[in-house]
Design the sequence.
């Protein structure tokens, strides 16, 4: 586009500029390059073709107020690159999700995460260092086994045959063993390799329910419903299960539970448990006496206040909080986004160990571009309640245990919200569920700082993709709401969920009409019931915020389809919208388009106005007249 505009009469532009009313350039301003529509491969559904369709902007600078407005129209940033899915066209529609911090109600699992951290700090959580583990061997199925029972990542370990009297240790170990079996089944071809599966979640069975669910004299201690989630994922992908005789079978929860249980038997027998498939559930039994079993599954109660206050005791300033226990100390520091060698070393280790990135892929330049660079213009505190004590802008929140950096949360603090972008953590501390713990701390931060800045009320978790099971953990932070992709109204998640069960793209603000349609459709009720069977896996939200949302301008190179068959012509109503008030940045001048329209030839003018109309549709009329549209 810029090459075409260079053909314009530059002398005429200069003449028009001298006689026009130049826009006031004082103070902060937002300046963007419009990248336009682009196609790329999708990291969520792994379609294998360029089915992900987004609109992109490259931001030279961006005020926090304009970025807040862009977030509320479905935009998101990665470094200095802004992107918004074209919801009707893209393969995996991404809905902006947020939570009002003051309304947050923690789940039982989120309460357990907070209590687990407290026990770790005071020394009552039994763990061993990774270098104290024995060497790993492989069984005939290629599954991991150790001479001493440990978690898959070696974070929680007890001696072989010893009494495991900690609930989190047992459920964490069993969950990881199921995950390893699912991976082995995928590697062997039994499960399709092109389908993403949720992480497993193993729950303890309450004493009152054991007799109702037990089939034998053995004591039922733990159960997992992962088979229902795997079956649903396979059905959505129209996939089957391949047995050893190359026979394909329907992926029902019962069949999947039987497959997984057969592989798990040897892995759990070492800790005195047996495993059986029961109506699609994977059940773990023990022959220990009932009194011992009751000790294992006992859970202390905890209130919302005790959960959200964790980590804020003894704070020395708004930007640093410290939780001191008799064993260890946790300090949480908030700092402006900048390059830190210690943070980069942790990020590199995290990406390689947790996400299996190759070392040459995790470069300092890619780290800076993704998590350090930011177009947001910092706004210092004003002291009048309009800006929090830390100011508005891009920040890194560091978590240090005994002075050692163990996690970093990357976030934007904006006039209405804390927008969480990414989290990376020490792989040796996976058992602490730092992804969940940091989210709880960020929600608590919003609640605390609302006292200083009343407009700061929300916690934005990025994009929610209902068709991608591993992204559904975000809805576990309740009560959340999703942004309607057409009218940009916020709709409670509990209303949106049954609509998204029916189809991927939904105009959520039409929920009243859609619910009436659903009430008259029997199959919708069946789908909703099946969705309840899936539920949200408790451990799935260990995935960092926006783990797979890293967008790069590189994905947009050489993929312009504006003149291709995919380009949808604008309607007369859309073309009728005036673009004259859009501020054009050209050759160092900021001018309204209507004042320099005649400076372009007919061909260049028609081309530019087509692009400007698309830009207005993407960012909205108000923002299009406020943000400077740069042409170089």
Sequence:
């Amino acid at each position: 586009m810029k090459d075409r505009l260079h053909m314009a009469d530059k002398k005429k532009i200069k003449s028009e500029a001298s006689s026009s009313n130049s826009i006031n350039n004082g103070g902060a301003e937002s300046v963007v390059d419009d990248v336009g529509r682009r196609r790329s491969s999708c990291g969520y559904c792994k379609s294998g073709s360029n089915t992900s369709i987004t609109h992109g902007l490259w931001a030279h600078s961006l005020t926090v107020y304009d970025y807040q407005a862009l977030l509320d129209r479905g935009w998101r940033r990665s470094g200095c690159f802004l992107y918004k899915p074209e919801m009707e066209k893209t393969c995996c529609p991404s809905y902006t999700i947020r939570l009002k911090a003051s309304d947050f109600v923690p789940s039982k699992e989120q309460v357990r995460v907070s209590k687990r951290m407290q026990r770790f700090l005071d020394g009552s959580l039994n763990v061993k260092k990774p270098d104290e583990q024995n060497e790993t061997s492989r069984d005939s199925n290629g599954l991991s086994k150790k001479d001493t029972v440990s978690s898959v990542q070696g974070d929680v370990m007890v001696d072989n045959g010893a009494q495991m009297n900690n609930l989190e240790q047992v459920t964490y170990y069993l969950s990881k063993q199921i995950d390893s079996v699912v991976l082995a089944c995928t590697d062997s071809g039994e499960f399709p390799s092109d389908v993403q599966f949720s992480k497993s979640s193993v729950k303890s069975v309450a004493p009152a329910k054991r007799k109702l669910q037990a089939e034998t004299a053995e004591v039922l201690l733990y159960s997992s419903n992962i088979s229902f989630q795997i079956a649903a994922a396979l059905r959505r992908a129209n996939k089957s299960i391949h047995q050893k005789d190359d026979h394909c079978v329907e992926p029902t929860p019962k069949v999947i539970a039987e497959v997984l249980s057969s592989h798990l038997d040897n892995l759990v027998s070492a800790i005195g448990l047996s495993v059986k498939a029961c109506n699609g559930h994977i059940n773990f039994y023990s022959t220990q006496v009932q009194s011992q079993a009751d000790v294992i599954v006992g859970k202390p109660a905890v209130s919302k206040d005790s959960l959200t206050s964790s980590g804020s005791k003894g704070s020395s300033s708004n930007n640093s909080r410290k939780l001191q226990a008799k064993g260890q100390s946790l300090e949480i520091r908030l700092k402006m986004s900048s390059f830190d060698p210690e943070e980069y070393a942790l990020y590199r280790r995290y990406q390689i160990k947790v996400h299996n990135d190759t070392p040459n892929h995790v470069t300092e330049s890619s780290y800076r571009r993704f998590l350090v660079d930011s177009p947001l213009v910092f706004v210092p505190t004003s002291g009048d309640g309009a800006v929090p004590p830390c100011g508005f802008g891009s920040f890194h929140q560091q978590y240090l245990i005994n002075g050692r950096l163990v996690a970093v949360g990357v976030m934007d603090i904006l006039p209405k919200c804390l927008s969480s972008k990414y989290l990376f953590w020490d792989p040796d501390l996976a058992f602490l569920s730092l992804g969940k713990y940091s989210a709880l701390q960020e929600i608590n931060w919003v609640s605390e700082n609302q006292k200083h800045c009343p407009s700061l009320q929300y916690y934005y978790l990025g994009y929610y993709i209902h068709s991608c099971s591993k992204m559904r953990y975000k809805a576990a932070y309740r009560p959340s709401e999703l942004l309607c992709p057409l009218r940009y109204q916020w709709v409670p998640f509990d209303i949106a969920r049954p609509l998204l069960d029916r189809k991927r793209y939904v105009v959520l603000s039409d929920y009243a009409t859609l619910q009436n349609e659903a009430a008259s459709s029997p199959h919708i009720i069946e789908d909703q019931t099946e969705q309840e069977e899936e539920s949200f896996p408790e451990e799935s939200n260990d995935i960092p915020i926006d783990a797979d949302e890293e967008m790069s301008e590189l994905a947009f190179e050489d993929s312009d389809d504006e003149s291709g068959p995919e380009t949808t012509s604008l309607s007369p109503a859309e073309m009728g919208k005036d673009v004259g008030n859009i501020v054009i940045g050209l050759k160092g001048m900021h001018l309204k388009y209507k004042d320099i329209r005649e400076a372009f030839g007919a061909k260049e003018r028609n081309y530019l106005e087509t692009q400007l109309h698309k830009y207005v549709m993407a960012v909205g009329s108000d923002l299009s007249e406020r943000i400077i549209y740069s042409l170089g």
Summary: Residues 6-26, 131-165, 289-317, 521-574 have pLDDT under 50 and may be disordered.
